[in-house]
Design goal:
The complex is a heterodimer of chains A (279) and B (269).
Chain A (H helix, E strand, L loop, with lengths): L1 H27 L3 H13 L17 H9 L1 H34 L5 H13 L2 H14 L6 H9 L3 H10 L4 H9 L4 H12 L1 H16 L3 H6 L20 H31 L6
Helix pairs in contact in A: 1-13, 3-13, 4-7, 4-8, 4-11, 8-11, 11-13
Chain B lengths: L1 H21 L2 E2 L4 E2 L3 H8 L1 H33 L3 H12 L6 H12 L4 H8 L13 H25 L4 H9 L4 H12 L1 H15 L3 H8 L10 H10 L3 H27 L3
Antiparallel strand pairs in B: 1-2
The chains are: A mainly alpha (279), B mainly alpha (269).
Protein name (chain A): Carbohydrate ABC transporter permease
Family (chain A): Belongs to the binding-protein-dependent transport system permease family.
Keywords (chain A): Cell membrane, Membrane, Transmembrane, Transmembrane helix, Transport
């Protein structure tokens, strides 16, 4: 009996966790009359309260078509998002993988100090680092360009933290064995480090994607030109004309993250739990 | 290793130190002013409001989040893997929903004439304008819990999985019940997990600015005007002295849990 109650509460909470996406999908397929009749109290300050249906009975793709045809500004933002996220992730991999490998497998002076600084920088919120970053970009006049958002993220120390943890789990014996076979350091890294550390790399990518698709603080602070803004800052007005578009943008913004989640869930979990592991 | 180090030092470390240095000078005539900038920040009304709200947010959210997720994690941990995994996925799912998408629902849900007040109305309870009143704080708390519950559950489960089953079996043999097992085995063994989860949750709580900003803009209701808004507004006015002092102050406060976390990672049990 007690277990049944807990299970019921759990299902209820799970429903709350998952329902918003259902809501957005349903809304994106409703035609405008139906959206209007449900939401008019919010949209035009009519009488009564907004209500909602569980299923788009008047199924319509009109909102999608409207967005695709009539909203050029949306495309600009969509591609801005794609560009920012992709450049960051590729850049991160180029910078972070060797760095993580170095931290995990080599000893060098000041290693402990560097590692500590990296962790501090990883955990500091953006508000602390905002001014320092801005002053640099101002000096090299990169403010108001995508690079000002991208560069700090490329040098983020978070992926290094995740990857070095998984790299350090590779036993040293394997590396020594490879060296006996006269492999040089670079070959060890390419043929042993990368394949065995693959999980950590993918974890970092999955977490990175979800994080950078949601960038709000950085573009808001560094990009004054709104044509450079990514989709994470796109907020259509909740008005009668635009409510359909609002639903569709929500869905389109969600789809890439949804796909990453479905295919990368295990890696996501692994990336999250890295913080609980001791060295 | 080298490229990362150079980048990190140039873009983050040196400017960071530079800013700490700015915190102690008058930026216009470069004179050393000691702690004057700090004094101005601390005595500033908006700073006090923002600091109070941020602190209140952390103090409200973190205990609810930790307790709720621990209860769910303990329950899931005792069940077969299939159920655990399904629920874990569902609870993690909100992490993948972009803030910009979810804000649409929050706006319709919490509007003056939105869904929530509609539901209240059917029970003849008078609703409130959630977004533009002091209740907006509640929206943020809800939003934070909704998003981070799965994250904490996963962390707790990772901690629970490290407790050897034999301890429980031995305790059972000695006649311990569910309650004793939980209080004397589970809780003490989860101490380091509790600490890690807490620090990570506090750090994550700074990201609530995203929801707050997309819901209510630069100058929201007083109850959700947080440090993040304040920094943003200082930034817009390029108030370098206040920002430097504020950033330094915030760094010092956050350094305490961060150093503790670092120590926790580096001690072997």
């Amino acid at each position: 009996m007690k277990n049944k109650v807990i299970l019921f509460i759990l299902c209820l909470l799970a429903g709350i966790a998952a329902y918003p996406v259902v809501f957005l999908i349903v809304g994106s397929f409703m035609n405008s009359d139906m959206l209007y009749s449900y939401l008019s109290p919010v949209l035009i300050d009519g009488e009564g309260y907004a209500s909602w249906g569980l299923f788009p009975w008047n199924f319509s793709l009109k909102s999608y078509i409207e967005l695709l045809v009539d909203a050029p500004s949306f495309f600009v933002m969509f591609w801005n998002s794609i560009k920012i996220v992709m450049v960051i992730l590729v850049g991160q991999m180029i910078i972070a993988i060797p760095a993580a490998w170095g931290l995990a497998k080599y000893t060098f002076p000041l290693k402990k100090v560097i590692y500590f600084v990296y962790i501090v920088l990883m955990l500091m919120p953006f508000q602390v680092l905002m001014l320092p970053e801005y002053l640099v970009f101002d000096r090299i006049s990169l403010v108001d360009s995508h690079l000002s958002v991208i560069l700090p993220c490329i040098f983020s120390t978070f992926p290094i933290f995740i990857m070095q943890h998984l790299f350090s789990k590779i036993p040293n014996e394997v590396i020594e064995a490879a060296k006996l076979e006269s492999a040089n350091d670079f070959q060890v890294f390419i043929y042993i480090g990368l394949p065995l550390g693959k999980q950590g790399i993918i974890s970092a990518l999955v977490l990175g994607f979800l994080e950078y698709w949601n960038l709000i603080e950085q573009p808001l602070a560094f990009l004054k030109d709104k044509t450079l803004w990514p989709m994470s800052l796109f907020l259509p007005n909740i008005s009668i004309e635009e409510i359909g578009i609002a639903f569709v943008t929500s869905i389109i913004a969600f789809v890439p993250c949804g796909l990453v989640f479905v295919f990368g869930r295990g890696y996501l979990e692994q990336g999250i739990t890295v913080v609980t592991k001791k060295e | 290793m080298l490229p990362s180090l150079i980048g990190v030092i140039c873009i983050l470390v040196i400017p960071y130190i530079n800013v700490i240095f700015y915190a102690f000078i008058n930026v216009w005539n470069r004179k050393f002013v000691g702690f004057d900038n700090f004094k101005r920040v601390i005595l500033n009304d908006s700073f006090q409001l923002a600091a109070y709200n941020s602190l209140k947010f952390i103090v409200t959210c973190i205990p609810i989040l930790l307790v709720l997720s621990l209860i769910i994690a303990v329950y899931l941990h005792e069940h077969v893997a299939a159920i655990t995994n399904t629920f874990k996925s569902i609870f993690l799912f909100p992490l993948s929903i972009p803030v910009v998408s979810i804000v649409l629902l929050w706006r319709l849900l919490f509007d003056d004439q939105g869904f929530l007040n509609g539901i209240f109305n059917t029970f003849s309870i008078k609703g409130v304008d959630w977004i533009n009143s002091k209740y907006s704080f509640g929206i943020l708390v809800f939003s934070y819990l909704w998003k981070n519950l799965g994250y904490s559950i996963v962390l707790w489960l990772a901690g629970l999985s490290t407790i050897p089953k034999q301890i429980y079996e031995a305790a059972r043999v000695d006649g311990a019940g569910d309650k004793e097992c939980f209080c004397y085995i589970t809780l003490p063994n989860l101490r380091s997990t509790l600490f890690v989860t807490m620090v990570i949750s506090i750090i994550n709580s700074f990201k609530i600015f995203r929801e707050a900003y997309l819901l209510a803009g630069d100058y929201p209701n007083k109850s959700i005007y947080m440090l993040q808004h304040l920094f943003n507004n200082w930034f817009r006015d390029l108030d370098i002295e206040k920002m430097s002092a504020g950033a330094t102050l915030l760094s010092i406060i956050l350094l305490v849990p961060i150093v503790a976390l670092y120590k926790c990672w580096n001690t072997k049990e």
